[in-house]
Amino acid sequence: METTQYSQVDLASEQLDSALKLFMAKAPRFASAVTLAGASEEILGKILERQGKMNAMRHWYLGKAGNHTGCKPTPTWQQHASEENFARNVLKHIHDTEVIAIPFGLEDAAAMMLYRAITNYEWLGLEKSWRMVKFERWFWKWAV
Predict the structure, then answer these.
(1) In sequence order, which ranges of 53-129 are alpha helices (DSSP H)?
(2) Which of 53, 113, 62, 120 is nearest to 85 (CA)?
């Protein structure tokens, strides 16, 4: 069997595009959009970190924690990451109960994960697709 090499950015971009298609479909698939956008967000974010740049999750944490004013960060980074990735992690892992509880809607979780993934994509200096631009227009109306 022949080994094929893939660019991590290309794979994460494909996941992000698929997540956007699922989110914006006439019959949305929010759970799938969360997991695909989450995978893309994580990969793109780690690539930014390798380049010595800040990713969307860290940027959001610093603003949320008040670090920009010199205040002691609260919550901790781990608590922040756990909270922000809760829906993605619930959807990825097996649980002791058949029914799982997510304290917010899957649409909200997918929207936030997509926003973070697109932010990381853009901060890598990549040109946003028309689908990303369309989502961001919707997102800013929804978020405000």
Answers:
(1) 56-65, 77-84, 86-92, 106-123
(2) 113
